[in-house]
From TrEMBL:
Gene3D superfamilies: Cadherins. The keyword Membrane applies. Keywords: Calcium, Membrane, Repeat, Transmembrane, Transmembrane helix. One of its GO terms (molecular function) is beta-catenin binding. This is CAD87 protein. It is found in: Membrane. InterPro entries: Cadherin (IPR039808), Cadherin-like_dom (IPR002126), Cadherin-like_sf (IPR015919). GO terms for biological process: cell migration; homophilic cell adhesion via plasma membrane adhesion molecules.
């Protein structure tokens, strides 16, 4: 808009379409993703530009965004301690810094945060930048090589990004899910196994003790029956088959 003053001040907005998946910078008109993970296809977004003059003139256009699924195994995740809206606003500078320090062409696959709602986009100081690097032959650089180079250049990358964000920056390479098991989790698993083993041993002891008590109780019952039978019959056979007196007859006491 060639006008000056408020008549030339434009604000951009998404009028309709998949506004849950996309958002727009109202000052620059830059469209960025909010969350398109696992989604493939073409999204048609209706964008409006409105000046701030008294008459409030507007114009609209349709922007088609195609999201392709990526089967690449060379995506590397760089975690920055910055809010997602700040990273998105400076994504071009982030890409420039990475290309300069890695000495490869870098493609930003996605800028992601666990905070998906727009109202919470500035609440979490952790943003994931998903990247793929390409060499001079336009071939994907293996993920392990990219990770190694990122770790080597980490200090320089953080220093340059501090200039971009005007704040202290931490840039860490995210580990693969299989290799990211924390020591605390390992300790918890080991402790769980030990507790399970202790419980099984205790349960076995309890069952064995109950079995032993039942055996002794049965033996005591047999003895009581034998004694009662012997009292009823003062002359009882011993283990050799001979008779013995458990109770003296009355005439023998005399």
């Amino acid at each position: 808009d060639p006008d000056s003053g408020d008549n030339g001040l434009l604000l951009y907005s998404l009028v309709s379409g998949q506004t849950d998946e996309f958002d727009i910078n109202e000052h620059t008109g830059q469209i960025f993703t909010v969350s398109v993970a696992g989604k493939v296809g073409t999204f048609n977004l209706e964008v409006q530009a409105a000046d701030q003059g008294t008459r409030g003139l507007t114009a609209r256009t349709t922007v088609s965004v195609t999201v392709d699924s990526s089967s690449s195994s060379n995506v590397v995740i760089l975690v920055l301690n910055q809010k997602i809206n700040v990273v998105e606003r400076n994504s071009a500078e982030v890409q420039r810094v990475l290309e300069d320090k890695l000495e490869w062409n870098v493609y930003l696959v996605n800028i992601y945060s666990n905070e998906l709602e727009r109202k919470a986009r500035s609440s979490t100081n952790e943003t994931q930048v998903w990247i793929i690097a390409f060499d001079e032959a336009h071939q994907e650089v293996p993920a392990e090589d990219v990770k190694s180079k990122l770790r080597e250049q980490r200090a320089d990358i953080e220093l340059e990004l501090e200039k971009v964000f005007s704040a202290s920056v931490s840039a860490a390479v995210a580990e693969d899910p299989a290799a990211s098991t924390s020591p605390e989790l390992v300790a918890a698993i080991v402790l769980g196994v030990l507790l399970a083993g202790t419980f099984i041993a205790f349960l076995a002891y309890v069952l064995l003790d109950l079995k032993r008590k039942r055996k002794y109780k049965k033996q005591d019952l047999v003895k009581k029956v034998e004694i009662m039978e012997a009292i009823d019959n003062p002359w009882a056979a011993d283990k050799n088959g001979s008779l013995k007196s458990l109770e003296k007859p009355e005439h023998m006491n005399n």
